[in-house]
Amino acid sequence: MQPDHPISEEELHAYVDGDVDPARRLDIAVYLADHPLEAARTEAFRALNDGVHALFDQVLDQPLPKRLRKLMARRAA
Q: Is 45 exposed, middle or buried (0-12, 13-18, 19+ CB in 10 A)?
């Protein structure tokens, strides 16, 4: 079954990120089930995202350097 609208590259990335509405998510899932090469590409996107998160998510928990806090305080004033 073909969706009413073609699946764009942006939608495939949004699908991986979980950022599409449920009805469109179903369209994309059906599309990927019928297109194994696109499904493999989409899984590569997911693996890349997972790798980036594994490498860099810990940075989110680090405190902001003092020089940047000072700069932000000056700009806020």
A: middle
